[in-house]
Amino acid sequence: GDSVTQMEGPVTLSEEAFLTINCTYTATGYPSLFWYVQYPGEGLQLLLKATKADDKGSNKGFEATYRKETTSFHLEKGSVQVSDSAVYFCALGAGGTSYGKLTFGQGTILTVHP
Amino acid sequence: DTEVTQTPKHLVMGMTNKKSLKCEQHMGHRAMYWYKQKAKKPPELMFVYSYEKLSINESVPSRFSPECPNSSLLNLHLHALQPEDSALYLCASSQERQGSANIQYFGAGTRLSVL
User: Fold this and answer.
1) Is B40 close to A107, i.e. CB distance below 8 A?
2) Helix (H, G, I), strand (E, B), or coil: what is residue A83?
3) Is B98 within 8 Å of A100 when comparing Cβ atoms?
4) Does residue A5 sit at the B interface (CB-CB below 8 Å)?
5) Which of residues 18-37 of B touch A (CB under 8 A)?
6) What would the pLDDT profile of B15-52 be if each residue is shown by its tens digit?
7) Rounded (5°) CA angle B102-B107-B109
8) Mean of the pLDDT values across residues B54-71?
């Protein structure tokens, strides 16, 4: 079945540091890939998405590229802020008989210190 | 507007109580979802409705009963819950169920405590 493996956390960085959160996936067919962010006490917000190989999703300084050859969708940001502290989930949207299902990674807790 | 509204925000109930969670969206989405999220874990899919019909039930115990009265509204009826059912319950919606590129928009959730 489909699966998403996400870099275990927690990750602690200083403000303005470079961020990478690794995400790899296993899927049949042509999935879409997403990064969702969950701030404390809130629901999930879509951060960015990519629907086909070599697509780059970007939003709020975050970027991720859909790499079919390495089955990866790593999240990067050049300079993190304290306000980026949250839990980040990599997710896969499947096709085929699994329409409507998102498969999530385990989540990575990011804490950014001033 | 990409808002999914969930009420109540917090709910405390005893094991013999009956309560309901409510979810509303006005984006014209035709697919709606219930997820359960335990602390420090990813959301787990419970139910999917497509065009107001239940299309996926992830083997959820019958003490959880979903209902979709119309295309904008999704309820989750709770009865005889167990303490281990305490969690954050998230609702989401998307334009359609089919299509892997469909974006799911999430509400802020209802934090449920079962005593």
Assistant:
1) yes
2) helix
3) yes
4) no
5) 31, 33
6) 889 999 999 999 999 999 999 999 989 999 999 998 99
7) 135
8) 94
Query: Closest by alpha carbon to A88, among A21, A2, A15?
Result: A21
A57 interfaces chain B, CB cutoff of 8 Å: no
Please give, rounded to a whole number of angstroms, the shortest distance from the CA of B74 to a CA of chain A.
Answer: 16
| C-beta of residue A88 within 8 angstroms of C-beta of residue A4 | no
- Interchain contact B69–A (C-beta under 8 A): no
DSSP, collapsed to helix, strand or coil, labels residue B83 as helix
Distance CA A24, CA A43 (A): 23
Amino acid, single-letter form, for residue A29: G
Q: In angstroms, what separates the C-alpha of B52 from chain A's closest C-alpha?
A: 14
A34 part of contact set with chain B, CB < 8 Å: yes
CA–CA dist B32, A103 (Å, integer): 16
| Chain A contact present for B99, CB below 8 A | yes
> Which residue's entry shows tokens 């917090």?
B10
Rounded distance between C-alpha atoms, residue A58 and residue A45, angstroms: 14
> pLDDT digit of tens for each residue in chain A (114 aa)?
889 999 878 999 999 999 999 999 998 878 889 999 999 888 999 999 998 899 999 999 999 999 999 999 999 999 999 999 999 999 998 765 556 678 999 999 999 999
**Dihedral angle over CA of B37, B38, B44, B46, nearest 10:** -70
Summarize pLDDT for B67-105 with one digit per residue, the tens: 999 989 999 999 999 999 999 999 999 987 666 567 899
